[in-house]
Amino acid sequence: MLPTNMIITVVIGAILLLTYILVCCRKRNVLGLEVKSLVSVVYISTAALAVFNRPENCMFGLPVVIGGVMGLLGDVYLDQKWIHLNHKDKYLTLGFLNFGIGHFFYIFAVAKNAEFALKDFIIPIVAAIVIPVFNEILSKPLKQDFGKFRWIVFAYGAVLSFMMGTAVSAFIKTGETAHLIFAIAGASFLVSDIVLSAIYFTPDNRKVTVGRFVINIVTYYIAQYLIAVSPYFIEA
Q: What span, in angstroms and rounded, lies between the C-alpha atoms of 192 and 214?
């Protein structure tokens, strides 16, 4: 059970997320960017409270907090894509870059905590190869066109898949609740990014539906908030 202060931040984050969905489900705007940024600030606050409540887990928690900050920056850049159309490609690239850096901090936190040996990286490496290749193969029947972002999408997919694989490998090794939470978060990230890929790279604008928007944003924040609470569950 989470402590009261963390429950409060999660509830506040959920309320802000609902507000963001209502404000931006039809059209992205500056107000939505502000609200979305607040949702991200609250999940960073949740992670910080996890470290505050379990200071003995700071070596796991601090990289999680930093990864959350990088996720916030990624959020901001991706929403700028919808507002500043003349520079949308630059903002999309910066969004991918910041999210990727954030995942490296998550990978570090989990691998270090689980005391990975070389053999423990087998699952992450396989995931980092198989999932992006599978995504590339599916892009044609799904009528997605990555265009000049093909290699960026592939690289980001590899980093995300490596992160998820790291969490799965860590849970298999340790059985810790925190690592299971991270693995579920990784899967939720994957679902979010599959839907985001359909939104960004399907030429037919009719594919940018309210349903896809909601699924993308909800699964993304489920992942971030799961990661934010995970330091509280590390067994010191």
A: 10
Q: Which of 45, 53, 40, 38 is nearest to 231 (CA)?
A: 53
Instruction: Determine the Cα–Cα distance for residues 37 and 83; give it in Å rounded to an integer.
Output: 15
Say how far residue 226 (Cα) sits from the centre of its chain: 10
Question: How would you label 128-162 residue by residue, b for 16+ Cβ within 10 Å and e otherwise?
Answer: beebbeebeeebeeeebebeebeebbeebbbbbbb
In the chain, how many domains are there?
Answer: 1
Question: Residue 93 in 3-state DSSP?
Answer: helix
> Domain range holding 72?
4-233
- DSSP annotation of 22: H
Read off the amino acid at residue 106: Y
The structure tokens 């790291």 sit at: 166
Reported as a single tens digit per residue, the pLDDT across 50-77 is 999 999 999 999 999 999 999 999 988 8
With 0.85 as the threshold, say if the pTM is over it: yes
Angle ∠(66,24,194) on CA atoms, nearest 5 = 60
